[in-house]
Amino acid sequence: MVEHYAFARDLERESTIRLLLDNDIGIDDALALTYLCACDHVQIEAVTSTPGNVDVDQVAANNRALLAFCGRPEVPVLIGAREPLQIPLVTTPETHGPQGVGYATLPDPAPALPTAVDAIDYWIEAARANPGELTALLSAPLTNFALALRREPKLPWLLRKVVIMGGAFYYQGNTTPTAEWNTHVDPHAAKEVFAAYTVAAEQGLPSEKLPIVCSLDTTERFEMQPEFLTHFAVEAGCSVPEIVQASDPEGTLSTASNPLVRYLSDALRFYFEFHRHYDQGYIAHVHDYFAAGVAAGTLDYQSRPATIDVETESELLFGTTVADFRGLWGKPANAHVVTCNDPEAGFAELITRLGSLARKLNTDS
Predict the structure, then answer these.
(1) Contact predicate 78/174, CB 8 Å
(2) CB under 8 Å to 178, separation ≥6 — which residues?
(3) What's the pLDDT at 23?
(4) pLDDT tens digits, residue range 151-180?
(5) What is the maximum alpha-carbon separation in the chain?
(6) C-alpha–C-alpha distance, residues 83 and 143, integer Å
(7) Rounded-to-integer distance, Cα 353 and Cα 284, Å
(8) Strand ranges, E, within the chain
(9) CA of 332: how far to CAs of 195, 201, 307, 328, 329, in Å?
(10) Among residues 277, 278, 275, 276, which one has the least CA distance to residue 287?
(11) What is the pTM of this model?
């Protein structure tokens, strides 16, 4: 059975989305975080950092710098795990640049505030203190979330909603022929997370609390074209057109008058170039933005319940996600896999929100 969720309607009933975000801030993570900062109804409780696209200290520095830039310097940025559960960390400078955000630069962030609480303890304490109120958005390898579930097995009941960007099912992987990046970085963590939700489902966890999984099957439908930046600059009020073209020399930097336009243009140009290097065209798959829209309740989609597991033994299929949609394993569903979305509406939403934030930041500066 196909289940349809229209969280735009959900938003009418709940004025504020209280969000815990875990990321490994690369280019599409940065776009997603900027978008969430542009949503007035989203209250970002904390951003926790997981090693992935870059090492975790760089992830945390990127998060602090971008939150400050977007007018949210008060949001705590915390570090949990420093490496995957069982395998060495592999980062992606060729995909996201040496600092994780392509050609973009921001002023050095303020140093991290000393705290005795790590990211994992923070999540658990926040969920216990606010049962049923917090939405978790996981756009990184699932290392931190797996460790949190180890310490607090009741976390699936305590969270309001969980959204995961990861996996590939009826679709080619983007790291190996069958494996998606986030899952491949720490497949043991992903396997633990889905196993924990299988146990929770067997214990009666309500279906609406199962993770919503945004896999490559649907996130790669969010294929950004360079013209997006032209439209964004217009919405931001730039007087000079922002033109990014495949014929430009690699590494060309934006001269846009608006700082947010410059930042995202410089980040996304690197991403366009990366995709072209891998024969996908001068485009960018902005996976994490779609997942952010699902978590924020601003993008519609359809999903199907499934039982997900992750391969961790086979060298050939290491990190591959497998979804049983037909109950052949005899186990309860442990997730809802997104099967349909609307990229055209999603990009229109993104331009409107980012344009509004860009104008505000320009005025504030």
Answers:
(1) no
(2) 168, 172, 317, 319, 320
(3) 97
(4) 999 999 999 999 999 999 999 999 999 999
(5) 60
(6) 8
(7) 19
(8) 3-5, 17-23, 42-49, 77-79, 134-138, 161-165, 212-214, 223-224, 284-285, 301-310, 321-324, 335-341
(9) 11, 6, 7, 10, 9
(10) 275
(11) 0.94
Closest CA to 259 of 106, 61, 108: 106
DSSP state of 137: E
Q: Do 5 and 303 touch, CB atoms closer than 8 A?
A: yes
- Rounded CA gap, 348 and 25, in Å? 23
Tens digits of residue pLDDT in 123-151:
999 999 999 999 999 999 999 999 999 99
Binned at pLDDT 50, 70 and 90, residue 363 comes out as confident
Helix (H, G, I), strand (E, B) or coil at 55: coil
Residue 324, classed as helix, strand or coil, is strand
Burial 281-299 (b: 16+ CB within 10 A, else e): ebbbbbbbbbbbbbbbbbb
Pairwise CA distance, residues 103 & 101, whole Å = 6
- pLDDT score, position 112: 66
